[in-house]
Amino acid sequence: MVCRTVTSVIRRIAHLDMDAFFASVELLRRPDLRGQPVVVGGRSDGMRHAGTKAGPDARLRAYTGRGVVTTATYEARAFGVHSGMGLMKAAALAPDAVLLPANFDAYRQASIAFKAAVADITPAIEDRGIDEIYIDLTSLPDDSHTLARRIKQTVREATGLTCSIGITPNKLLSKIASELDKPDGITILHMRDVEARIWPLSVRRVNGIGPKAGVILAGLGVNTVGDLARAAPALLRAHFGAAYTAWLVDAAHGVDSRPVITESEPKSFSRETTFERDLHAVRDRAVLGNIFTHLCERLAADLHRKGYTARTIGVKLRFDDFRTVTRDLSMQVASQDAVTIRRVAGVCLKRVGMVRKLRLLGVRASALQKDGNADTLQQEFDFSS
After folding, report:
1. Identified catalytic residue from 26, 126, 132, 276
2. How crowded is residue 238: how many other Cβ atoms within 10 Å of its Cβ?
3. Which of 88, 103, 118 is at the close of a domain?
4. What are phi and psi of 332, to 5 degrees?
5. Among candidate residues 268, 278, 269, the one with its CA nearest the CA of residue 360
6. What is the pLDDT of residue 337?
7. CATH no. for residue 274?
8. Of 100, 274, 297, 373, which is most buried, counting CB atoms within 10 Å of its CB?
9. In which domain, by residue range, is 235 found?
10. % of the chain with per-residue pLDDT over 70
11. In the chain, what is the straight-line distance between the N-terminal and C-terminal CA atoms, in Å?
12. What is the CATH number of the domain that holds 28?
């Protein structure tokens, strides 16, 4: 194994990943479903389309629509169900699984609670999403096992939920490690463990190697991280270029010098929804209008809660042929007002030819500014953008 030294300080970086987060939050409300295959996803109207009353014990076999799996319990995952899978496909794999509609307000509250609990132990946290964080433990005096157990207990007391933690010298390895002993696991790795624990894994387990890169690597006979570590750099450069090849080589050897970033400024906020059925711009005008207004209101609430205003408002539309269109407009004065956002987004919509039915509708706020008494009055538009 090639030894690489990137810093004189041996860091301890943890990656905390909540276990089947959305499903676990639902099970707090429905403990009677523990041990059963449960799938979270879609909305209750998808059940109504099937002529079946939506309810807490609706079975996945009754679902019709184009919704996707948000998450699933480990019992459902045993049937091959996974996040991002279409619910109709999931129904074929696990027809008797209980289907629950997603409750994102509850998930956000649980997310806030577990992150606040960890922050009481150390503020050196990088927020990576609703259900995962990185934690820099380097400066803390306790050993890694003690810290991991303490963090897990704190999270459980704050939320009633379990999490899995990987602790290694860097973010790349910790992300992988947190998945190795799920659920409710602790995995601690050192650089000397890379060859034995990481090299046998599929290259797709490395965060940053996506489906397209995975297909190319498989075509080169590179299936495991170990294969990647042994691959000739010249061969990789011929297919990926110099910069990505350099990253691949480092990743295969467990090298990652990225710091834990405790503060970062968002570049945009967005809200979007995929419809259970295609909606027509004219025949479903009232339904679309209500959905559009709701998205704008939620986007305005996000801006207000996070303390930002936005100068640019945009829309995103995906048609039934999967073509995606975006339009943006900029205002002279930034705003976080729902009425203003709805009005500007409406102007954006008028710039799109509604010639096909819609699958998806979204609104986006960018060119963000920290809120300084946001102007909620009517604004002039800058159509040059």
Report:
1. 132
2. 11
3. 103
4. -70, -30
5. 278
6. 93
7. 3.30.1490.100
8. 100
9. 202-252
10. 90
11. 53
12. 3.40.1170.60
Tell me, yes or no, whether 308 and 350 share the same domain: yes
What is the number of structural domains in the chain? 4
Q: Is 80 left (phi over 0), alpha (psi -120 to 50) or beta?
A: left
Burial bucket for residue 361 (CB in 10 Å: 0-12, 13-18, 19+):
buried
Helix 104-119 and helix 21-29, axial crossing angle in degrees, nearest 10? 100
Amino acid letter for position 263: E
Q: Does residue 132 carry a catalytic annotation?
A: yes
- Cis before residue 95, ω within 30 degrees of 0? no
* Same-domain check for residues 339 and 282: yes
| 3-class SS string, the chain | CCCCCCCCCCCCEEEEEECCHHHHHHHHHCHHHCCCCEEEECCHHHHHHCCCCCCCCCEHHHCCCCCEEEEECHHHHCCCCCCCCEHHHHHHHCCCCEEECCCHHHHHHHHHHHHHHHHCCCCCEEECCCCEEEEECCCCCCCHHHHHHHHHHHHHHHHCCCEEEEEECCHHHHHHHCCCCCCCCEEECCHHHHHHHHCCCEHHHCCCCCHHHHHHHHHCCCCEHHHHHHCCHHHHHHHHCHHHHHHHHHHHCCCCCCCCCCCCCCCEEEEEEEEEEEECCCCCHHHHHHHHHHHHHHHHHHHHHHCEEEEEEEEEEEECCCCEEEEEEEEEEEECCHHHHHHHHHHHHHCCCCCCCEEEEEEEEEEEEECCCCCCCCCCEECCC
Q: What are phi and psi of 343, to 5 degrees?
A: -70, -45
**Using one digit for the tens of pLDDT, what is the confidence trace for 139-178?**
999 999 999 999 999 999 999 999 999 999 999 999 999 9
CB 158 within 8 A of CB 120: no
Q: Around Cβ 173, how many Cβ atoms within 10 Å?
A: 27
Whether residues 189 and 208 share a domain: the answer is no
* Tokens read off for 250: 């480092």
